[in-house]
Amino acid sequence: MSEEYEMMCGIEIHQQLDTKKLFCDCESNLTEEAAGGIYRRLRPTTSEMGEVDRAALAQFMRGYGYRYQSCPCETCLVELDEEPPHEVNADALETTLIFSELIGASVIDEVQFMRKIVVDGSNTSGFQRTSLVAVDGSIDAIGKKVGILSVCLEEDACRKIETTADEVTWRTDRLGIPLIEVATAPDMRTPEEVLEVASRIGSLLRATKRVKRGLGTIREDLNISIPEGARIEIKGVQELRLLPDFVSNEVKRQKMLVRVRDILRERGTKPAAVEVVDATEIFKDCDAKVIAAALKDKGKVLAVRLPGFAGVMNGDNKTLRLGSEMAQYARTVGVKGIFHSDELPNYGIEQSYVDRLREFLGMTGEFDAFVICAASEKKATVALELAVKRANAGIEGVPEETRDPLPDGTTRYSRPLPGAARMYPETDVPPTPIPAARLERIKNNLPEFPEQIEARLVKDYGINAQQAHQIVRQSRDDLFCQIASEFDLASVAATTFQNTFQELEHEGIDTDLFTYDDLYAVFSGLKAGKFAKEAIPAILKEMAKGTDLETTVKKLGLSAVDAGEAAAIIEKIVSERADFVREKGMGAIGGLMGPVMGALRGKIDGKQANELLTAAIRKLLGQ
Amino acid sequence: MYADFLSKKLSDAGADEGCMLNVTVAGKTYKGVLMPHHEFSGQDIIILKMKSGYNIGIRLDESSQIEVVSRPVERVKPETAEETKKGLKTIVLIGTGGTIASYVDYRTGAVHPALSTSDMINAVPEIKEIANIKANVLFSIFSENMTVPHWQQLAKAIADELNNGADAVIVPHGTDTMGYTAAAVAFMLGDVSKPVIFVGAQRSSDRPSSDASSNLMAAARFCVNGNRAGVFVVMHDGSGDDVFAVHNGTRVRKMHTSRRDAFKSINVPPVALVDRAGKITFNCDGRPVSKDRVEVRSDMCQDVVLLQFYPGMDPVLFRDIFMKSKGVVISGSGLGHVNSNMVPLIKEAVDNGTIVVITSQCLNGRTNLNVYNTGRDMLNAGAITVMDMLPETAYAKLMWALANTKSTEAAKGVMKTPLAGEMSDRRVML
Prior knowledge:
The complex is a heterodimer. In chain A, 40% of the residues lie in helices and 20% in strands. By secondary structure, chain A is α+β, with helices and mostly antiparallel strands.
């Protein structure tokens, strides 16, 4: 690539569709109602060459198995791999076609479902059903056309519930929920561009009106590389706002690893041999928590010498952190962690232990380093092998990896980048022809683009552009239009969707989870005078806990107050402060609005309170 | 089937399955490997496997262009030599076809029968730890295409292997008619002195979740450690891969279209359960394994039919069938009934020398024609009952009884005598 760039990023977006499941008639909800635990195993199958993936087979031979929970409305024999898939869900396919046309992609003439082999247990069958529906689309974002390489329609996987030493428990509610997978070209060059492109694709997906909302219903995979770095896949980011953090942190990480590589090469560091030695004797009286605990469990302290690696595992003011990468590899086998010489003495391991270990290992070279692990002999050995493997890979640069996103915007090593997916035809699902006439009909009835909807809302309902943008971004435009035209509450609704929702989000409430019916009921109640608009934030906060509107209104003491009742309450407040009112005259209104609203907030609106207060003061003053 | 224009385009370009092609349609070019045409695909569609692994169907017309980029590289599969370990028993696998013995060519997606020994053993290499395995493929057909001559050929092959040193025979079989075959072979092999186990799969072995290998392992463990002679069917006991049921071959029936635990013993508990660690729990007594020579009596009379009674069954429609058959098995309603219109036909057929055997479409429970008038009329007409024998088992047994006795009366006597655990006069709460 001749273009100069700091980093390159492509995104894969997985959006759940709001239809029934892709290959059966089950509901596509997540639920806490789950029962049973059917025990299954997944055997790595032989390839066309008659070979089996050895690592996967070794895991199978060790007796690794899975348990699958069933859910009442979300699991049938199809999810449990006890019945062949039915025909592809027509709504899900239609939605995928609509999205493909929205981005001007070429739809495949005849869609073929494939089986993509996945043996981690997340699919009961051992494969994910997936199909390529369209290729070569584009969207307008970041001031250019961003390429969309492919649009796929596929099944979501099970949810992981629990992991033990030899079993993983999965829940089958999520399995089979239709997903649209949108893969962009590696066209993004800054963290901000990644966010903008992801947002744009998200709003185009929502424009189809058939996608699910809420955390976890849209997940992104990021593919990031820098010059001299490597392709890193960050899989399953759920929070859009964190995308720029993941990207910039990954760029930093790769730059750091390139620096580490340069230092190691300059030193002429050679790959370290994995010579694991038993150093238990040296540490037998050590108080360090991890070590003492491991020894108490009859574990061992094993060590490996790493010539040439000093100072890059944790050095240059903690900016070189190869040690942290090594630890992430080691932890994949279930050890608490590793200790390396750059970080010691620390963690209760005193200098005297470090000195004795250095002597024991015969460390004399300037850059000699070591890494130790305290655990059962078997685990510690494998953990150290992985740690040394990772250290050695540092000489080559950045290893290609799949990484898991963490809540703070950083990532953790998950597994090596998978090779080319093994896919073969799903022979139980017939191919689906997509006639040109069907595409023509879809093309002629495309949903409005987000910006078109925004313009319409501004024009028809007199709200401002920012409000319209928020409403469309939240995919609340249909609801908004109904509230605006049926109840004449455009302005209140716009304020709610923009400002109130933003406040709620700050308090950690996922406003996406309010259903159309929930929110419709709130505005219907407002229109009927059951409470005042000032009560809406409190009502929504309560409803977010799962309380229904009627109970919420009762609980918050918002039950409607009629004008007579309100007037009586206000007159009482005024008479209690008669001296103040006589002293200030009509100027007392400002001082009294506080106590009045305190007594009546949510029961009557501010304008009405003001009118009643004015009348009460006049009455007292005998005007 | 491709449309003529497309067949011609493909052959003109020399484009065979497996070739990498550039296909240009309306100015857009797709590059991918040509896959086999799907039965349900449009005639103007070709299927290409893209670099990403996805298959796509592309519609071609007269103006489309096909260009071969490269031809497939022939791949040679490594052959695994048969190994023999001292101290292990010898199990012979006799392949007959079906889901369990087929594999998918991941390159083309086509399903092929497993034709070689190594294909079958390679699918379950750990089986070699518990026994020396030899395998041969007798035939390779879906079980719905099985015929009586197939049963006869199979029984002879099993006996040959057992008489030539095999400690047990496992027969991978399609599941649809596995119960019929197991019953027929059970009668043909009589008091077979060693285990003969039919094994099927409800999920094909190309899938990581296939039940083929775990069923095969459970069968092999039962052969090696069960010390039980007879003809059995081994399949999943429940939906999970943790418990496997060993059924008597004459008592078992496929009771679900797709579940792993489709096979159920009817009217009796399964002979034994085998767990995933290989532990065997027996539910009933049986014959231990011995060194006796296995005798085959594989003659069958094929003039036998199996009919299901239904309300409104019209004797006029069935007259020819009753009169031309040497044996008729009826799966009657309830205790074994047919409507009263059918009774004279039964009498006419019996008088004509046909054996009419009554079983029940309830499957569970014993037939009894003494309870109601219609039943008593059926008995008077000459129908016989066979206690709680399954209709399919009665069908196989009647063919065998007619061919292996000298008179109709003798055949009736055989039908009423338990030979291979196929019937009993005592049922308990299961």
